[in-house]
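Private note to self, pasted from the team thread so I don't lose it. Backbone tokens:
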């Protein structure tokens, strides 16, 4: 409590009362905390029950109350110092960040939110010990926004106050501290920019454990005293707040704040029992968009999600389902991507190209202005931890984000190490990504994988991948245009079957209550599909059609399907739904245009069998041209000889690009290639 004035002006009766409460209710814990030189967290409600006047004083005059607590503890014979902290303030005393007003300044309150930014942990001067030049007494004076001297000496000489006014600086009192910015919980925000507030954490709140807890992406409930800081420099009267934290605890995403009433629960159970619920949900999603049923159905499964599992050996399997849509311009991707996050709790829409600030993952930047030093800021994936992030223009994201995205999609974490900051942030986020093909529109003459601008390692992390093509078709076009006209002019004819409100609650409810398990019959079904599809690849002649990543995806999709009906087991129809969607996905992005086979290597940006043979051919030709000494080869010459083997110039260019990327070739001079 270095910040408090040492001269006491609190009433001894109150100190006595609090001491009594401590000894009676927290005797053992207090002693234990003192032995470990830790802090003691007191349940506010317990104190409120035992001594209402004490809890009232804490709320109204927290600084005085802390002084009381300090003196009360000092008066007890203990093996070490103990800091008193208070938690579990009732919900009525939890203030929404957006509702913070000047009336809260100087009061003890509780707030909740997700950490968005966090500074490094640094020592901060909180007080200076001054020596009185007259009587040598040491006077501790707090440092607020600037350094000031004590007004008068509080020492006592010969039974009389010294009142000296000349001081010599003796020592600075330092404590470890960290500034964080929290942003209000997502349940409270609907689209608009969430409000933020800065928090000041000190002492054991920034210990090893405290640091991990207050890293960006974590959700916290914090108690403390709201203080004001002058905003800007001179002349401005506008005040800003920060909370001086007293107690911090991690909170799980609490769906309760969505307020699922008894009636809601009834409605959800009724929907879940309806075999047509899948269609109803699809009909309630992005109603302004015509068709796209397989994609919409997949998104519905994504919203409910699979079940995250941890094996006894520590292996972790994610429950999040990731979906990628690559499509022609104006095929409805952006529209869809914007609508989906609105219906889920904790959803966001960002564009891969233009994510400002911390980008998609996380960044470390220098911030001298407020926090001082290095600041770790959470990007969109971290802020939507346990929610959904729609990423538009996915192929245009920055190379750094692309690298970090690999870890985020599979492990659900983002690791960052820069300057003095090393952290692993949580990012258990379902990703719905959309983007354009390489040449912005699909070219039916080229194979799909040539046109997808996303590295295969990243592609393979998407459970389902779809293409959207804008191919003129008179019958379809008429239907779409009619739908568009109708949705613009008779808005009520396309109202969703299930209201957005209920869909949100339904998802939250199912996620919390339902963890379906596999049965032997269904395992067999999934296994058979896997083995059969893979069987097409046997013998090494044909492409490899399906990998284990897709198999895990199938399980997640089946689980999601079961959750929609709140079923404890994964039923046959759930597995069949998953298989059907997986087949659409494999056909969309996986079929080898030249052989007509489904080829998973291709959907993951890998190489199909016919392409592999062309690459082998090019390498052979190259070696023939360059000879023993591996001379440089003119690309034009290579194209000339390749043409004899019916490999086109664009194909040669693509193959060279690819071999360069893989380090098999390099370009010593423009127009030439060479083997390293
Ligand atoms: N299936 C559809 N039903 C109704 N409207 C559609 C459909 N597809 C596209 N549209 C309309 O076309 C317009 C363009 O769609 P959108 O902006 O979502 O395209 P996009 O796929 O993101 O294109 P780009 O690749 O150029 O970003 C939107 O106004 C959208 O409502
Ligand atoms: Mg778009
Ligand atoms: Zn003095």
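Design output:
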């Amino acid at each position: 409590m270095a910040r408090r004035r040492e001269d006491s002006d609190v009433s001894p009766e109150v100190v006595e009362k609090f001491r009594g409460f401590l000894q009676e209710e927290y005797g053992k814990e207090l002693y234990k905390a003192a032995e470990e030189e830790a802090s003691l967290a007191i349940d506010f409600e317990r104190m409120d029950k035992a001594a209402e006047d004490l809890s009232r004083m804490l709320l109204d005059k927290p600084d005085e109350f802390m002084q009381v607590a300090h003196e009360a503890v000092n008066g007890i014979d203990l093996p070490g110092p103990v800091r008193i902290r208070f938690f579990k303030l009732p919900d009525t005393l939890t203030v929404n960040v957006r509702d913070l007003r000047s009336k809260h300044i100087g009061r003890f309150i509780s707030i909740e939110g997700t950490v968005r930014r966090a500074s490094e942990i640094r020592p901060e001067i909180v007080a200076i010990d001054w020596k009185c030049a007259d009587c040598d007494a040491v006077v501790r004076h707090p440092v607020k926004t600037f350094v000031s001297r004590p007004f008068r000496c509080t020492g006592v000489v010969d039974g009389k106050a010294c009142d000296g006014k000349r001081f010599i600086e003796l020592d600075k009192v330092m404590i470890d501290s960290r500034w964080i910015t929290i942003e209000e919980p997502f349940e409270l925000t609907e689209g608009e920019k969430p409000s933020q507030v800065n928090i000041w954490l000190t002492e054991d709140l920034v210990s090893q454990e405290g640091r991990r807890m207050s890293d960006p992406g974590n959700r916290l409930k914090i108690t403390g005293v709201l203080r004001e800081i002058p905003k800007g420099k001179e002349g401005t009267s506008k005040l800003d707040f920060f909370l001086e934290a007293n107690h911090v605890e991690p909170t799980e995403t609490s769906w309760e704040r969505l307020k699922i009433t008894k009636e809601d629960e009834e409605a959800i159970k009724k929907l879940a029992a309806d075999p047509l619920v899948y269609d109803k949900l699809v009909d309630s999603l992005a109603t302004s968009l015509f068709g796209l049923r397989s994609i919409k159905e997949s998104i519905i499964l994504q919203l409910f999600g699979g079940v995250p599992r941890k094996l006894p050996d520590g292996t972790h399997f994610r429950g999040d389902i990731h979906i990628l849509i690559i499509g022609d311009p104006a095929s409805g991707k952006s529209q869809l991507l914007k609508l989906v996050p609105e219906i889920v709790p904790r959803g966001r829409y960002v564009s891969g190209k233009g994510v400002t600030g911390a980008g998609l993952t996380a960044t470390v930047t220098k911030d001298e202005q407020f926090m001082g030093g290095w600041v770790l800021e959470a990007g969109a994936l971290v802020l939507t931890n346990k929610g959904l992030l729609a990423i538009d223009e996915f192929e245009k994201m920055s190379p750094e984000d692309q690298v970090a995205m690999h870890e985020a999609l599979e492990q659900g974490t983002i690791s960052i190490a820069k300057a003095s900051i090393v952290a692993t942030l949580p990012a258990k986020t379902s990703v719905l990504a959309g983007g354009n093909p390489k040449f912005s529109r699909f070219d039916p003459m080229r194979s799909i994988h040539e046109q997808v601008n996303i590295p295969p390692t990243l592609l393979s992390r998407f459970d389902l991948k779809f293409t959207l093509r804008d191919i003129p078709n008179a019958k379809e076009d008429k239907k779409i245009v009619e739908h568009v006209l109708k949705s613009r002019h008779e808005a009520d004819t396309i109202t969703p079957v299930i209201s957005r409100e209920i869909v949100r609650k339904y998802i939250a409810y199912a996620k919390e209550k339902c963890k379906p398990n596999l049965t032997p019959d269904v395992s067999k079904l999934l296994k058979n599909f896997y083995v059969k599809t893979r069987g097409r690849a046997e013998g090494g002649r044909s492409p490899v059609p399906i990998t284990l990543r897709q198999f895990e995806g199938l399980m997640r999709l089946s689980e999601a399907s079961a959750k929609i009906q709140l079923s404890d087991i994964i039923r046959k129809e759930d597995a069949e739904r998953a298989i059907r969607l997986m087949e659409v996905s494999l056909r969309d992005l996986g079929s080898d245009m030249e052989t007509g086979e489904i080829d998973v290597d291709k959907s993951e940006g890998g190489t199909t069998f016919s392409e592999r043979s062309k690459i082998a051919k090019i390498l052979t030709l190259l070696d023939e041209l360059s000879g023993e000494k591996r001379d440089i080869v003119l690309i034009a010459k290579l194209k000339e000889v390749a043409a004899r083997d019916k490999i086109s110039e664009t194909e040669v260019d693509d193959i060279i690009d690819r071999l360069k990327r893989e380090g098999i070739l390099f370009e010593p001079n423009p127009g030439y290639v060479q083997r390293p």
